[in-house]
Amino acid sequence: MPQTHLYILTGASRGMGLAMAQQLLRCGNTLVCVARSANPDLASEAKAASVTIEQWQQDLSQGEQAAHKLQAWLQAQGPQAFASATLINNAGVIPRIAPLSHSDAADLAHALRVGLEAPMQLTAAFLGATDTWTVPRKVLNISSGLGRRAMASQAAYCAAKAGMDHFTRCVALDEAIKPHGAKVCSLAPGVIDTDMQVQLRGADPAAFPDRQNFANLKTGGQLTSPADAATRVLAWLERADFGTQPVADVRDA
């Protein structure tokens, strides 16, 4: 019986994704990170911890390529390779902060490909390649409160996260009728002190009415550090009732 647990994580090169990757570098884990660039420090930490890691340099706006690679890699491993398998769709981007009427078509397409299309494609590849596996399988989609609450000048990001929530609900229904179906959850991780927050605080107030609210979160010390957010998210992943709620918020723990 294999004792190694597989984790596939997108957006692992910085922010909460990097923090999750670092916390997953535990004995008994195999980690596959998918991001635009590799993180040399992560490779060094994995070597020191004697953890197997692969860093795939992949632009997730080309999600079809990433999905084909993931599917082929999983099929090559086979159903007896791991004690469990987990996909964490964490990568996401926000386009230029502006009303939709002032948005660039290519910028919108990029945000939707990374934030919604790629997670769907990777989830399809993961579930398809492991459908006959009898070990526990999980898909954790990192969503946002903005997928459940509209915000001006954030149409693409809000739409991507709302779509992520709803496709997760659909997948939960698919998997529930299978004898060894995967557990899935789209989880909002709270408000985190990342580069995305810097973008929001630095936006033009005339184009982004909520700018001051985000500035107040920073000055009021209400932002969670990436490391603390990663700890809370991974704790949710390990809950015995993971997947009972296909759409959840870590702040409801």
Automatic annotation (TrEMBL):
Localization: Cytoplasm
Keyword Disulfide bond found: no
Keyword entries, A-Z: Cytoplasm, NADP, Oxidoreductase
GO biological process: tetrahydrobiopterin biosynthetic process
InterPro entries according to UniProt: Biopterin_syn/organic_redct (IPR051721), NAD(P)-bd_dom_sf (IPR036291), Sc_DH/Rdtase_CS (IPR020904), SDR_fam (IPR002347)
Record flagged with keyword Signal: no
Listed GO CC annotations: cytoplasm
Single annotated GO MF: sepiapterin reductase (NADP+) activity
Source organism superkingdom: Bacteria
Family named by the database record: Belongs to the short-chain dehydrogenases/reductases (SDR) family.
Name of the molecule in the record: Short-chain dehydrogenase/reductase SDR
